[in-house]
Every structure is written in C-alpha cells, then in structure tokens.
Amino acid sequence: MTLRVKRLPQAVALLALVLFSLAPLYSALVVASRDNADLARATPPLVPGGRLLDHLGELVDRVDLGQAMVNSAVIAGVVAVANALLCTVAGFAFARLRFRGREALFAVVLASAMVPTQLGIVPVFMVVDALGWYDTLAAAIAPGLVSAFGVFWMRQACLEAVAPELVDAARVDGCSLARVYWHVALPALRGPAAVLGMLSFATSWNEFGWPLVALDPNDTPTAQVVLSRLAGGYYTDYPLVLTGVLVSIVPVLLLFVLFARKVVAVLLRGAAETGR
C-alpha cells in the first residue's frame, strides 16, 4: 500500500503527459466532426459532432487522397527499409572496421547533419532533373535513402551491441566482411534498425518541401501535398482540412502501435548503457 502511495505522483504525472499529448489529436477530431458554423461560435465545441463521415465523403470527392497516400506509403516504405539497411552497414563500418580516414569521414558525415536540407534543394533537383527522374517516385525517394542521423544512430548501437572480439573471431574463421555483417552485426542490431526504420518512415511520410519540388502536384502528389491544397485559397474549410489530417496520420499511428514495444525496449536499453 505504501509503495502504491509513493507511485501515485508518478502515475498522475504520466496521465497528465498522456492527456497533454493526445489533446491535439482530440482537438482535430472535434473540428473534423463539426461544421464551420459550430467553430465560429463564441464558445467552441468541446465534444465531437456527427459530420465526420460527411466530411470523409467530401474529401474523397475533392482530392485523390487515396492515390496520394499510396505514393506516400511507397516513398516512406522504401526510405525506411533503405535507412535500416544502409545506415546499419555504414554504422558497422565506422564502429568496427579499421581503415584510413575513418574518423575524418565520420566527422564529415556528422557535419552534413548540421546543414539545413533547404540549402540542398536546388543542386539535388538539378541532379534529379539531369537523370530524368522529375515527377517520378524515384526523385522523392533517392535523397532520403541514407541519413547522417541514421549513420550516427547505428554506429552508436554497433559500439554497444557488437563486441570487437566477435568481429575478429569471425574474420579469423575466414568470414568475409559481408558474412560478418550479415551473421554477426545485423542480428545484434535488429532492434535499433527497426526503430530507425520507423523514425525514417514517419519523417518521410511527413515530408512536404521536397515532394512539392520533385513531383508534379497535379500528377503524382503525396498526402502532405494534397492536404496543402485543401488549406489553400481565400477560404479554408477547417473541418475538411482536419479530416484529411486525421486520415493521413493513421499509417504513422499504426506503425507506432506495431513497434511501440521495440522502441521502448531500445530506448530503455540505451538509457541503461548510458547510466553505467
């Protein structure tokens, strides 16, 4: 009983944090299920209404959100898998392989993470256009296949999870670098790689600037570009916009639900390693 009383403040604080985190989502649900007339009242509504299905039907008639979400899913899915695999390879190389210039090259990777992505839009677009990839999904996928954060994340994970003695023993037994990576490093890094893939999926799914530049908004749009159309013009239908927002975040929420335990386990393990 005494232990429960001691944990009561923690439980209250966690509950308040959860409610605070869910407040924007609940607010979006309330707005999406109401009319603009309800939102214009002096006292805004605090409970959902009954117009959500009507707004969903209107959303389908106004924009091709289904195709846009398919495009976003393909882009984000490929980016997530590529980051999980390629960043793991790079992280393993920086952590456990000895080669000339390793530290300098890793410093360049870290420095690239400090450069705003907006500065690279013009040169990257020139490359994409020269390759003939404009208005193709490849143009939206290619710049996000590897990230500096992902390389740093997997390098740190490899330093903690893959012992150098295992790598040396595998090389002594005659394993090639590819086999050492596949049979020694990758099994130990599946958890961090899954978390990196989830984060990469969410980041790519929410990306707006680069898809707007690399893709024709009228031909191959993404979910975020389609939602920007609803918010444009002289008049903004906020219930319709928030309906699109709710639909667009469903894949990210499902992904988090599927990988929630993996994320928590990896983060707790990292915290435990840091505290030693």
From TrEMBL:
Lipid bilayer topology: Multi-pass membrane protein
One Pfam assignment: BPD_transp_1
Main location: membrane
Gene3D superfamilies: MetI-like
GO cellular component, one term: plasma membrane
UniProt record, GO biological process: transmembrane transport
Residue ranges of domain ABC transmembrane type-1 in the record: 69-259
Transmembrane segments: 73-97, 104-126, 132-153, 180-202, 238-260
Compartments it resides in: Cell membrane
Annotated InterPro entries: MetI-like (IPR000515), MetI-like_sf (IPR035906)
Highest taxon of source: Bacteria
Record's keyword terms, sorted: Cell membrane, Membrane, Transmembrane, Transmembrane helix, Transport
Family label: Belongs to the binding-protein-dependent transport system permease family.
Protein's name according to its UniProt entry: Cellobiose ABC transporter membrane protein
Lineage: Bacteria, Bacillati, Actinomycetota, Actinomycetes, Pseudonocardiales
